[in-house]
Structure prediction request, 65 residues.
Amino acid sequence: MTPETMRRAVAMVGGRAITEASGRINLQTAPIIAATGVDLISSGLISSGWITRSAPILDLGLDIA
Prediction:
């Protein structure tokens, strides 16, 4: 959906259900999508990959003797 279509869909729901957007969400599109009024932005692997790509790695190990 385009942001305008999302805005119209959120208005049609009128708070009677929780709305969610997902897919093709990145650092540039997230604020635009949030401004449509949706309740949730999906954190699926494809759409949230941009969040974790630059995260530092923490390697933990548990050695049992």
